[in-house]
Amino acid sequence: MIFILATSNETYIRSVEEASRLLNSQLIAVNHLSEFFIQLIFKTYDAAIIDPKTPSNFPYLEIVEKLRSEGILLPILLIDIDLNAQKRIIALRKGIEVFIPKDFSPEELAEHLQILLQKKKPEKHILKTGNLTVDLKNSKVWKGTREIKLTPKEFSLLALLLSKRNNIVSTEEISEQIWGNPSKISSIRNVIQVHICGLRKKLEKNTLKNFITTIRGKGWIIRDIL
């Protein structure tokens, strides 16, 4: 697992690093909320922790609200710097899930993270990488909160490639899984290429350039958005 922490406080960094070690996880620490936002938009993390005093060009709750509107649904914990009840309510409405005291121990934070992550286990019919979500049950695809409209064959291609992400999927496997006719692979190859091309164009319109890679002579691959 990988966590991200926004703070310029060395004490917090050391404590969160220790909590991460207790969970056999990696920590990325950034000292500005703009970098925190960019990291979460373009990379995949399992949980995020915010120190409200982290330098920022915008209020930290505006950044949390923007992340939620972009479909970034990971658990976000806030280090509670003496917030009153009204401010906590506002923070909860914006997307904060857990408040941790400013004098938290690594063991306490590790327990919070473990409980949150157990609750957030992905549903089996959902495939995710970065902020791209594929709902196998309802045949829908989203980039953040924006739905990407695909044809049934394009959806099947994306679902197959994403379910086997980081592995090459051959023409033969695509033909068998989607067209159900591996014996006529020579005639179906061009059909697959046309559908891959259409799928790529729709993904690129949604800022997913080079998402599907052609491996010449072998097939296609989708790599995780890290």
TrEMBL record:
<dbReference type="GO" id="GO:0005829">
    <property type="term" value="C:cytosol"/>
</dbReference>
<keyword id="KW-0804">Transcription</keyword>
<dbReference type="GO" id="GO:0000156">
    <property type="term" value="F:phosphorelay response regulator activity"/>
</dbReference>
<dbReference type="InterPro" id="IPR016032">
    <property type="entry name" value="Sig_transdc_resp-reg_C-effctor"/>
</dbReference>
<dbReference type="GO" id="GO:0032993">
    <property type="term" value="C:protein-DNA complex"/>
</dbReference>
<keyword id="KW-0597">Phosphoprotein</keyword>
<keyword id="KW-0805">Transcription regulation</keyword>
<dbReference type="InterPro" id="IPR039420">
    <property type="entry name" value="WalR-like"/>
</dbReference>
<dbReference type="Pfam" id="PF00486">
    <property type="entry name" value="Trans_reg_C"/>
</dbReference>
<dbReference type="GO" id="GO:0000976">
    <property type="term" value="F:transcription cis-regulatory region binding"/>
</dbReference>
<feature type="DNA-binding region" description="OmpR/PhoB-type">
    <location>
        <begin position="124"/>
        <end position="224"/>
    </location>
</feature>
<feature type="modified residue" description="4-aspartylphosphate">
    <location>
        <position position="51"/>
    </location>
</feature>
<feature type="domain" description="OmpR/PhoB-type">
    <location>
        <begin position="124"/>
        <end position="224"/>
    </location>
</feature>
<dbReference type="GO" id="GO:0006355">
    <property type="term" value="P:regulation of DNA-templated transcription"/>
</dbReference>
<dbReference type="InterPro" id="IPR001867">
    <property type="entry name" value="OmpR/PhoB-type_DNA-bd"/>
</dbReference>
<dbReference type="InterPro" id="IPR011006">
    <property type="entry name" value="CheY-like_superfamily"/>
</dbReference>
<feature type="domain" description="Response regulatory">
    <location>
        <begin position="1"/>
        <end position="117"/>
    </location>
</feature>
<keyword id="KW-0902">Two-component regulatory system</keyword>
<dbReference type="InterPro" id="IPR001789">
    <property type="entry name" value="Sig_transdc_resp-reg_receiver"/>
</dbReference>
<protein>
    <submittedName>
        <fullName>DNA-binding response regulator, OmpR family (REC-wHTH domains)</fullName>
    </submittedName>
</protein>
<dbReference type="InterPro" id="IPR036388">
    <property type="entry name" value="WH-like_DNA-bd_sf"/>
</dbReference>
<keyword id="KW-0238">DNA-binding</keyword>
